[in-house]
Structures
1.
Amino acid sequence: MDMLAAMGISGFGKKPKQRQLDPNRFEKNKRGDTGTLASSSSANKKEEDGPYPAPPSSRFKLEEHESDTEDVGPPPPNAPGGIDNVEEEPEFDVSGDDLDQPQFPISHELIMKDHTKVVSALTMDPSGARVLSGSHDYDCKLWDFGGMDWRCKPFKTWEPAGSYYVHDVKFSNDGQQFLVISGTTQAKMYDREGEELATYIKGDPYIRDMKNTSGHVAELTSCAWHPRDSQTFITSSVDSTIRIWDVEDKRKQRTVIVVKSKERGARTKVSACGYSPDGTLIGGACMDGALHMWQTKSNFVRPSMTIEGAHTKGSETGSVVFSVDGRTVLTRGGDDTVKLWDLRSFKKPLVTRTGQATLYPHTNAIFSPDNKYVVTGAGATSKGGRGHLLFMNKDTLETVKDLEVDSTPVKVFWHSKINQILTGLSNGQICVLYSPDTSVNGAKLLLNKGPPRKATIEDMSDAVAAPTIITPHALPMFRDSELGRSTKRKRDKERMDPRKSHRPELPVTGPGRGGRVGASATQHVVQNLVRDTTRDEDPREALLKLAATADENPVWTAAWRANQPKPVFAPAEGEEEGEKET
């Protein structure tokens, strides 16, 4: 062992010491209230038993710590239902259903504040590691839970379309790219890091038939990815169309669905669209109140199913969402209603919930991952008031839990993998709701990093030391190329990049092909105009130059030059008097 110690390998294979995290690190993010229950059975239970009991998993952890305080690290995982779940199955017991309240991940919250106006678009990548948001402050922001610190700032911010609102953002199924839909006529594709990949073409606004244009001619409203094909997505627009696009073809859409209205003019604005989970149906909600469904295998001449007056005419439906089983459709209307539709009897809604204040047209409603609940936001009743996040039973749309938030919730997103709920508020905040017991990673990663490192004597000595004085032109951005480090190669490389050099697109055919202007009639005329100097000469002198040539070789009188009589002029009177005197 002495020889191994001398070689420095005596500790090979030894488990490194792990940093112990504070077990109470989540308490500072705990909400003051976890919502109010609206059912009578839960109210009676609250009166009899007092506060809600802790979930079985937390009781199990508490008993573990009390019984064995010497163990280090988290307790072993238990069954999803806790210890009581091993002995009995309360989900099949009628009496047990009244005792077990639904456990939503809303006990703790994390506020991400960087937008200045209402968050109108919100989504997460499939892994649950990154958040993408869009707002009425014209910005898109990318957030990474693994790279954020306690300040909760995004790692990338950009304006996708100048001074246009961001209406919708969606990650692809593989999480490698995402779509941004703004108030313009062109959808934009970005990669995972926020670098632009493609801008899809806009159509010709002077063509009446929307099937003959290569892209949208009016403002975009929403988008959706194909659930099984990561190379296909759809976009809806105010131009009364839903267009199916191929990711690789940005010059023209694959198919056009022209939505026809029953009203005069036969056009209507499509406010929301969506795919069914199996990709066989495309749903669209319109401003005339109609709800349409198209089979993806059809020719899209007319919808397969239609409901006229699904929502109030003139109201903007915020979302069209299909359930996991593909049998029901959930719509959040601008007429303050939430409606559930059955595709098997597509005539009238199964359930309707009214009185949900809608202050923003992009307010959406979603299904819970287990397909048992519906989550949506209700606007504040007064200016500056608090909004409500409602958890409703899917079958009856009755409120199961009412959660108060700082302002009006606009966008809601429940990620099934990490079991966390994201809510975009009207004051620019993004509220991440989670539970330390049932949620995984996500917002918990910020607190799993432990407390910040304490300042050492070296840090203090650096702060006390004399500051470094930097002259303005000594910074790298102003500095000329250093000796031995030429930037010529870098400049040449950037010059060859069409995007960085801002080179316009070259003509494909005709004069100018290949970047060189060829001989043409226009070029010939221009060159002759430059060579012409007659405007700078005196016209009298220019005519006198040609007088001698005209006498010697006349052009028009050469035919009768031989027999042309010579003119004889009578002498003037003054000349005759002068001759007589002489």
2.
Amino acid sequence: MFIRPLRRLLTRPTAVSHFHTFPPCLSSRKILQNFKLADIGEGITECEVIKWNVKELGAIQSFDPLCEVQSDKASVEITSPFDGIVKEILVKEGEVAKVGQGLCVIEVDEELSDSASAEQLEPASSAAAAPSPVIPNSKFVEDAVSRAEQIREEPSAPRRLHPMDPNYLPSSTPDVNRENVLAKPSVRHHARQSKVDLALLSGSGRDGRIEKKDIDAFLSQQASSVSVDLSSVAPRAQTEQDVIVELGRTRYGMWKAMTQSLEVPHFGYSTSLDLTSLHSLLPTLNSHIPEHFDPSKSSSLPINPSALHPAPSPPPVPESAQFTRLTYLPILIKTLAKAMMAWPVLRSSITPGSINGGGKPTLTIRPHADIAVALSTPTGLYTPVIPHADTHSIYSLSSQLKHLSFLGRQVPCALTMNEMPKRGATVTISNIGAIGDGEYAHPVLVPGGGVAIVAIGRARWVWDVSKSDRGERRLKVGVSWSADHRVLEGAELAAFVESWRAYVEAPERLIGEGI
């Protein structure tokens, strides 16, 4: 009874036994994964792909830089979470990708794809993931075994360690090339157009960042090194041609916001405020700026006020928030915040299409006055927010304005989500009088920018005959309002401005109300 099974065992082909001795690497399953753009920050819905660090059909390892994307505020380098081969690039350089959209298709091992994040990966197609059938013939088995022996003999490339790995050692000789140089995407584009190697330049910006002026200086230096007879050179015709300039991320965001502003029905209201009383009060306020806002006014008292018990110390103020002189703007913001506390509709924000309200839009009334300030910076227009402006003193508001102006002047802009929260403000103020000589304007209100915006013009001394026949010399400033007519009625806006006027033209009320 044992003869027949023994005969089958002896006559079994030897290739079958070799087939079951494959190493695991030969039986690993290759699948295609769609690598998606993840959420890289609050309020960011799309990013522009600036540069790809890998080409199609190129191999990539874990933590290798995959591509570089730029949002409205910053550029971010995206790294690969696994080893694999880039089969297809879905979003080319210069194109915009939405959050959750696929960036590229990568061929990975099935074991590696199981450990990757499900939010960034998804199977590219079921057909691509299907394994090919195995033909168990002797020639195929012998070839596979020989390939396996070669793989065991060849040393594999060491895997790149993550910078947070305890065994990670930074390179002592940094790789100096044009990709490791700090520069904005627009500056890199300008360098490519001018055929300038960024690795040859030294940046004059913050942290050694290369600016456009550094490239222009390098080009002018090269031009001056070559002596050219200008009299024999014909005038260049290129100087008379049109130049096409692409919009930057910030200016393109402003373009989209202004386009959306056409959806808001505007109601305009203009008037003038009398600043004569504030003008008389300003020298007194300037002479009593607290020491932590103006360290130059430190005074030593003959008697120590903390002899019995330590007096409360004021909060630390950074150097960028210190000032030596008050202006009218922080006083106008303080009086505006006082008036907003009496008018809840000016402290409201619109929530369109609320489900709780049966599909109708709703208004959210905030407990404090959140005021945004329009800020013109070298990189574009921003509207940082001063939250709870009604709780600040006039000196504190002046310090906030000084600090926001300092952040906006940095290149690139140093304003972050802390200064520009996603919820924004309910009223925006624009001090156009600090730049031009105009008195009135027509500010534009964008969706999500609150319920009203006011532009303050240049203050002027005028001869006012409205209160007496003889007249008197008064300091007046023009203010121009634009409100969302879906929320505010014309009479409500006019009455609110009169409430603001009562504080501005009689600043003594702030003392009576405890400021």
3.
Amino acid sequence: MATSSLPGLQAFVAQIGLEPLQTFAKADTLNNPLDIYHSYLAESLQALVECDPDVIYNSIQLSKTIEDGDLDIVLPKLKLDGIKPKELAFELVKTFPPHPLFAAPFPDSVHIRALFSTKNAPRLLLPYVSDRKATYGKFPALGLQDQPESGSKKVIVEFARPNIARPFTIDHLRSSILGAYVSNIHEAMGYSVVRINYLGDWGKNLGLLGMGWQKYSSEENLNEQTDLFRYIHELYAKMEDEIQPEHEARKKALQDGQDISALETQGLVAKRDATFKQMEDSEPVAMALWEKIRAISIEYYTETFSKLSIKYDEYSGESRVSLDPEAIAHVESILKEKDLWEEKDGAWVIDFDKHGTRLGTAAIRDRHGSTTYLLRDIATVFDRLKTHDFDKMVYVVCEQDVHFRQVFKAVELMGRGDVASKLQHITFNKSNSPVLHPGGVQLLGDILDQCENHMREAMNLDPDEYQIENRDTVAPALGINSLILHQLSLKKGDSNNLDFNLLASPTGEMGSGTNLQLCYAKLCTEIAGVGSYPSAEEIPDLDYSSLSQPPYSDLLRLIARYPVATQSSFEKLDPGIILSYIFRVIDELSECLAIDESEKGEGKGESSSAALKHLARVVLYENVRQVLENGLKLLGVTPISQ
């Protein structure tokens, strides 16, 4: 990678006829090619105005879109006394020295707009991207500790959070896909990432499942099961149906103002609670059953999440701190010491309103003495701090905004504001139209199977629309990739209305992910059609005159913006920024490929102008393909090349 070091980059710019690159504090020329342009423009401006070099550099910004230009000099940011920016704009463009990287700048109110020279842009940008390949768009220094010799910062990303024995919802799916992106983008920025799937593996629902297991699961019955994971879910659904009348009776009694204590000490509710109490007391038979159910669940999720290219570093859960008396006792001792909890109706609670936040009152232990969701999550924060010594922890969980604010505030009130500041919750709206498996119990695998089946059916019904070889082999990946892209296209407040037929179609808003993949596959075919690809040494010296006009020049300007898209996406933890960028590249690419199709048959032979034009375009396309691959992988998509 000739341009991957400052000496190498300086040698490269000299090779293509540029003066030595000036250094500016905020320029990251090794990771962002736009900063090379930025630096040369700042140097030219520095020769015209008396101003601090860094102030000059900071007065230049990227245009919002390529239709607005490439770089803008915002003259008021120069803070020149007694000079009117509009008048200065006209004066400066008259004296702006010509530069091989730029067309002539032009004034626009208090701005001076600079456009890249389309003649020389390929000679700079194409070798730059080619040198970096899979690392293009990454900023590894962002994840370093304040003292770089100390290594990378560590981030924990917790996502999915399925509950054992309960259906896997569309919200769990969205959390999984979004969490995978959050993990990937942190890794791209140099962080050490720990991916955690925090299972709902503790609580009275496990007592209900345990009770059902004891009631219905004879050894003979279990031996007949071909899918124990599905059996667990069907058994739990059966037990929920059986206990539902007692829940209804309890609800009615509460509405009528009756004492419900007697109802809680009899029937299935009492048996459920007693079974869970055996687990809490680490009774050997109950714990052996719990461990078996948990192991079956983890085995299933490990295998099924791999279809989404998700691999967790740790399967944790509420049970971890629940089975560790010291973890819970540590939190409760601090809450007591700082007088943060109080007794209310037999339960122990935190009244957050008394501590300056409108978060209401939340129980730490219920009136039966059992730990609550809140207490377990608080204890988990400190357990992970002890185990992983994290610099940041991100929860990707549907809604539950108040709950996580309570967790973070409790940690702060316990005297650990430093830890609370490291915690972040990424949320999204709950789906109002969950996909239901025909059998009633919905598993992650059921959702993925539906994606695959609908995609295969759509491809077989209209093979001309899906011009991909080995359709049966490709259908699973194409369907899952379309699902991922659709989920990541949703805004925080968007309704998650998933329609598998629309998802498999290459037309319409929901099918845009399918169309994107088909375009990528077509691009790969175009590149594969070239005989011999030029070497790294040959790329800077090719004849790129065929790329000097739109849409080819615009496509080149777009791929130069990819590092800006990844950095902005990281800062906001918004995958939509990368996805919108990719769709814009695809739109421009489609125009280029359409022109190529109309020009097919022009000239033959390696020395013909048509052959040289085609070779230059293939080099552009290979760099575009690399950018698309990098972006898709950050989003958790495995690109399909055939």
4.
Amino acid sequence: MFRVTTIAGRISACRSRLGLRALHSSKAGCGLLSSLLQTATSKDPITSQWFGQPAHATHPELVGKGETTPGISQNEYDQRRRRLAESLPDGSLAFAFSSQMHFVSPHVFHEFRQDSDLFYLTGWNEPESVAVIQKAPLAERGYTMTMFVRPKAPETELWEGPRSGLEAAVSVFGADEAWPICDFARHATRLVTDAHASGAGGWGVYADLDGEHGMTRSSQCDKLRHILQRAQAGSHVHRLTSLVQRSRLIKSPAEIRLMREAGRVSGAAFTAVMRACRPGLSEATLQSTFEYASRQALVDAGSATADLSALTRPAYVPVFAAGEHALCMHYVLNNGPLRDGDLVLADAGAEYAAYASDITRTFPVSGRFSEPQRDLYSAVLNVQEQMIRLCHASSGYSLNEIHRSSTSALITELKQIGFHTSERDVETRLYPHHVAHYLGLDVHDTVDMARSQVLKPNMVVTIEPGLYVPYDDRFPKAFRGIGIRIEDNIVVGRSEAETENLSTSAPKSIADIERCMAR
């Protein structure tokens, strides 16, 4: 089932109950599909790229054969959808909605960033889109997927760039059917009505209709909400993201390879930042150095013909906090001066092929730590290394238990350098944040997954103890105004020997930092 308005003459003859997947199964269908794609890829040089994102056909240096997105195969996306379908009652529908475009001012937009659940299930990277996955035990894959996307529109694409269109939703992204997004309400009504009428025991609609964690939802969410109200199906509605996040929590080998590269790229950028750092520069200069060096690391790593820098961008708004700015956990103004004698706390990470890194390093502006800085840094580093050694399944620890251990270990370290402080002071003043969170497509990944669950192999977590000494007479004067955090990205192993640190290329020991910064 498909309808394409931009090549109406050729498509109108094909408005039937056949989906594009059915077209693939016959020689005539293949020929027809080929002609459709040839029409969509006009000779107009501005719209000659007919996908709205890199694909193997247009960017073989970025997307390998058999891959839907860089590093992730078509088969892996199918397996993700199968796992989701297997977790649903028969006949149930799962609606995954795209993110919206966000605007700085009229006609000036932010770079688009796809909803992580939709991306995880499909690899599709355009706004105004919905994927509907229905559990169907009799179907070849155990499910069917219908996608609602923006159709090809050469006149619009002339201004806004190429779209993937309905054909690619089927041929590249694995949909069984594809319809224009403007038809979503009509077809969603049919899907919900048919599922409701089937009377399958325990069927449900799985969708995230309300914005959470500061996220705004697609306008299509309201349409589905009204459809469900009219169908009196409210009691059958459940949240989708918790089911998807359970799958996202455990990373595949392909995902870990991408996250390993994100760590390598970020490590190269941290090295460049440390080498560039000197008194008199601005925090903003370090931020721009990090972003440039992240891309440059993918130019230098590529072959003579492959520049992979298009695969990276900042994973989040970074922290480059010099001096007392480091006492603010998420200082992101990054507009202060670098002064001799101060430390810089840099919390930054590159995204690589949609997967995030999240690394923090603290280093001296001058290139050498003072004695108080050295003592406090060593205390944090000792604790961090102890906590990393707990990041394996055989330890039986959860992230919450690792956090409690980090608090106790910091109290011990602080006593050795002259602090006489209570556990309450450590938890509320000196170390007020959690030691860890999950990492993946999002920086704070799978936020619905409790940090109280025992670690499992191939979870990826951060370990980031810190100390932030305020100007307070309760704490030794030599340390006041110093903020230090050290953060690495860890793949949980079955045993300690199988645990992997993805961010080792970012200098971390005092000796390595001072060697990197030596002039």
